Amino acid sequence: MDNGIFLNYAQMEKTLTSAVLADILDEMGYRQQCMTHDIRPVIPFSKFAGRALTVLAADVYEIPSAPYQKELKAIDALQEGDVLVAATNGSTRSGFWGELLSTAAKIKGSRGAVIDGLIRDSMQIKQMEFPVFARGYSPYDSKGRTDVIACNVPVQCGGVLIRTGDLIFGDHDGVVVVPKEIIHETVTKASDKVSGENQMRKALENGMGIVEAFNKYGIL
């Protein structure tokens, strides 16, 4: 259960797109809900939808006596359907996320991870088919470079404010954040728009002109 409604994340991944969700959010007055374009899928054309679990990380300049502790606790806190969202302030000092964290998250039922910094072990992540979105890659370990300082707090990731419980949707075009208060309304309207797009596409394929089709369906 999410916010009193059941969210079928697999169905969302199958039927929705980031573009459709962004259009609906625009119509609803939420015009800054897409992460910056440089946060890209490690696996091209991979897709995920899930509930955000946030972590806040910061650059550090000494090796702690007990590294990784808050990061590991965040992974253990993941529930089925969660997407881990790590805000690193765009840090490029380390590959903050890697193969073993992906394995642990996947086993917990996580649907993906979004890192606004760098990741490593990209080949292994691709092989396990776990959706990870990030700015790029670095072989450096995060120990003594980047550390989690808080979990389940509001974070800014990819230019968007995200709270635990928000809906996170990612595909090859980008990552969209739907505030938790409007998830049901947004998803319902997005599903309706997909239906309208399908009808308009069929009309175009049957020879209807684009002007006539737009005037009829009001979709683009």
TrEMBL record:
Keywords: Magnesium, Metal-binding, Methyltransferase, Transferase. InterPro entries: RraA/RraA-like (IPR005493), RraA/RraA-like_sf (IPR036704). GO terms for biological process: methylation. The keyword Magnesium applies. Transmembrane segments: none annotated. GO terms for molecular function: 4-hydroxy-4-methyl-2-oxoglutarate aldolase activity; metal ion binding; methyltransferase activity; oxaloacetate decarboxylase activity. Its cofactor is a divalent metal cation; Mg(2+). It is an enzyme of class 4 (lyase). Mg(2+) binds at D121. Its EC number is 4.1.1.112, 4.1.3.17. It catalyses: oxaloacetate + H(+) = pyruvate + CO2; 4-hydroxy-4-methyl-2-oxoglutarate = 2 pyruvate. Substrate binds at G98, E99, L100, L101, R120. Belongs to the class II aldolase/RraA-like family. Catalyzes the aldol cleavage of 4-hydroxy-4-methyl-2-oxoglutarate (HMG) into 2 molecules of pyruvate. Also contains a secondary oxaloacetate (OAA) decarboxylase activity due to the common pyruvate enolate transition state formed following C-C bond cleavage in the retro-aldol and decarboxylation reactions. Homotrimer. This is Putative 4-hydroxy-4-methyl-2-oxoglutarate aldolase.
